[in-house]
Structure formats: C-alpha cells, structure tokens
# Entry
Amino acid sequence: MDDFSLSGRMLVTGGTRGIGRAISLRFARAGARVISNYIRNEKAAEELRREATQESLAIELCRADITSPKGLELVENAVKNLSEPLSGFVHCAATGVHRPVEELTKRHLEWTFSLNVTAFFELMKILAPYFSEKAGVVAASSMGAVRAWPNYTVVGASKGALSSMARHMAAELAPRGIRVNILGPGAVLTDAWKAMPEGEQRLAEAARRTPTGRIVTTDEVAFAAQFFCSTAASGIVGHTLWVDGGAGIIA
# Structure
C-alpha cells in the first residue's frame, strides 16, 4: 500500500453523478469501500452500481435526502452499522437556482443553502463520533465562492459559506486527527453546467481562457479528492485546492 492508496469506509454525498460519481469510482479503485449517497436519479445510481459490479469495486448505494431529518437518520444508521470507523467523507451533493438577482426569492436561497451548506453541517455533527483517528473530509466548493458570475448569486454565496465553514471545522477537528479541506473544481462538464444559462458558451470561454486550452475532467478532480483523503496529505489542513487547469491565475 502506497501513501496515495485508500482504505476503510468512505461516504460520498451526491456520489452517483458528475464529480461525485468520479470520486466514488476513484476511491473504490484506490482501495476504499464507498457509500455513495443520492436522492433522485435512480438511472444514474444503477449505472454506477453496474460499473462497480463489472470492476468488482466496493461501492454501495444509500438513497437519502440529506436535507431532511429522515434522510440524515438513514445516513447515520448506515454509518452506525459499519464494522469499522469512517475514514473519509466528501460532500459533493449540491443544488442551486440560476437566475438574475431580482428574480431570486428567499425560498431559492434557503433551498440552495439547505443542501450545499446545512447538510454538510448536519452530517459533520452526525459523523464526528464515527470518524477514524486519521479521517479525511473534503468539501466540494466552486470558483464561484471567490469570483462572481451572472445568475450565480445564491450558488456562489452557498459555496463561499461552505468553504468558510470547512476551514473553521478544520481548525477545530485537526487536534483529533480529522483533516478537513476544500476542493475547488474549475469548469467541468457536468449536468450542473448544462442547467446554467448560456452554460455551453461559458464552458467554451473557460476553455479558451485556461492555460491548458481545455476544461478539467471529473477524473482530474477525483484524483485531487483522493490525494486529500490519503496519508500523502497528512500535513494539509484547511486548504483549498483549485483544480482548474490554471484558469485562476489568468487576469
């Protein structure tokens, strides 16, 4: 086993689609036994199950709405019944409303924060007693946490709050050996981008501005998540790692 391999049980919220799916597969291929959480898309979940079966990967599905008390209870029961501590947790589940500010409502704000921020807060409180002594936690943020784009107000604000919360938790939990870090993907082709106004044009512009000449892949983001949860990153706490092909350094 090298310093980048994984072991034990790991939970990935939003783990059956997009970046979360790539992380579930990468973690399992690296040696972890993964619990992939999802809520609605049964087709995507079954596709992940089939791929895991074909590769003999240890991935189990957990369908639970982590914005609800019942869903949080389902996750807690799944972790509570494990025969071993939880060695990793990645919060990839996310949602959002992409509208101009004047069209946004309090309901849009509350719904976005309920999954992107509050669910992470609730899960960290629930999971804390079950973490191993060297557990790795990753909060999947966004470039929108530090930069501004049209129609991204509530999503960007939620990602900024998530990043800040993760840093505070990192400082508080590090003495227990629990390392919390923030993963900042750049532009990645996922269903989330397809839902954004002018998403295709924005992706093309992102590729044009990126020094590599292309957008990053979900697999590249997943490798960074693996690093954070491996012993190779044992000295990294409260850090934000941007996986953006260098887009963030261009003025």
Remarks:
- DSSP finds eight helices and seven strands in the chain.
- The first strand starts at residue 9 and ends at 13.
- Strands lie at 9-13, 33-38, 59-63, 86-91, 131-140, 179-185, 240-243.
